[in-house]
Design brief:
Blueprint: E1 11-15, H1 22-32, E2 36-38, E3 41-43, E4 57-59, H2 62-71, E5 74-80, E6 83-88, H3 89-97, E7 101-105, H4 108-126, E8 134-139, H5 143-153, H6 158-166, H7 168-172, E9 180-183, H8 187-202, H9 209-223
Parallel strand pairs: 1-7, 1-8, 2-7, 3-4, 8-9
Antiparallel strand pairs: 3-6, 5-6
This protein binds adenosine-5'-diphosphate (ADP) and guanosine-5'-monophosphate (5GP).
């Protein structure tokens, strides 16, 4: 039984302070773990150089974002670093219906909302239960290194970097609420650690009923040869 997609998809939530390397690590993960979709959030912040609408984010005006809030389109939304960000519910339902997993890159507030609302939101929409979400926190080797990375990325002004650094303590406060911690010091090691978390979770027996059934069928055939 070679590696294949699991029978049941999972919802993964990844959090970490700005500049820790979430986007870098997630890009690697998406290439190496089959059957995972990235949840494209909506945001009112401006695109950075190289970011594409609909790929990295849905870049919205504050008015359009407020409309979607009114329509109940979000599983969660929050103000992060002075802008609005939100996770759309529809793509999550689509992924789970297709037996695929979905990955959310959200801040601490978003992770808390997902923990509180996800199971009920899915049950209300599809009338069946799903497994609880898996929460992964990406830690920097130190706060000083975090600031260096934000500067080295070269996508944000000094003012934006200062604003983000001012919120680091808040984002780190929730670390104890997460299931897995990955330190992004050496990039290769962090990639390996994050990939291992996803592989192990997707190999849970509860998501692999078809493998159990295949073993049972083979045993049955050996007990009753034709
Ligand atoms: P985030 O998505 O968490 O804000 P990014 O993925 O944009 O962070 O990474 C911030 C900067 O740090 C980028 O310039 C990225 O290339 C760099 N970076 C990411 N991981 C490492 C690492 N392990 N060592 C050194 N630089 C890194
Ligand atoms: P950035 O602007 O650097 O892409 O993201 C800033 C912060 O917003 C990060 O901590 C990221 O995890 C968070 N974020 C991105 N999308 C969402 C979302 O849909 N909901 C919430 N709550 N946070 C988000």
């Amino acid at each position: 039984m070679a590696w294949s997609n699991p029978d049941r998809g999972a919802l993964f939530v990844v959090t970490g302070p700005s500049g820790v390397g979430k986007s870098t690590l997630i890009a690697h993960l998406m290439e190496h773990i089959p059957g995972i979709r990235f949840s494209v959030s909506a945001t009112t912040r401006a695109p950075r150089e190289g970011e594409q609408d609909g790929v990295h984010y849905h870049f919205l005006t504050p008015e359009r974002f407020a409309e979607l809030v009114g329509d109940g389109a979000f599983l969660e939304y929050a103000e992060v670093y002075g802008r609005r960000y939100g996770t759309l519910l529809d793509p999550i339902i689509d992924a789970l219906d297709a037996g695929e997993s979905i990955l959310l890159d959200v801040d601490l507030q978003g992770a808390r909302s997902v923990r509180r609302d996800y199971l009920d939101a899915v049950r209300a929409r599809v009338g069946r239960s799903v497994d609880d979400a898996i929460f992964v926190y990406i830690l920097p080797p130190s706060i000083a290194v975090l600031e260096e990375r934000l500067r080295a990325r070269g996508t944000d002004s000094d003012e934006i970097i200062a604003g983000r650094m001012a919120k680091v303590a808040y984002q780190l406060e929730g670390v104890a609420e997460y299931d897995y911690l990955v330190v992004n010091d050496d990039l290769d090691e962090a990639r390996e650690a994050l990939t291992s978390v996803f592989r192990a979770e997707l190999l849970r027996r509860s998501r692999r009923q078809s493998w159990v059934d295949a073993v049972d069928a083979e045993l049955e055939a050996r007990r009753n040869p034709a």
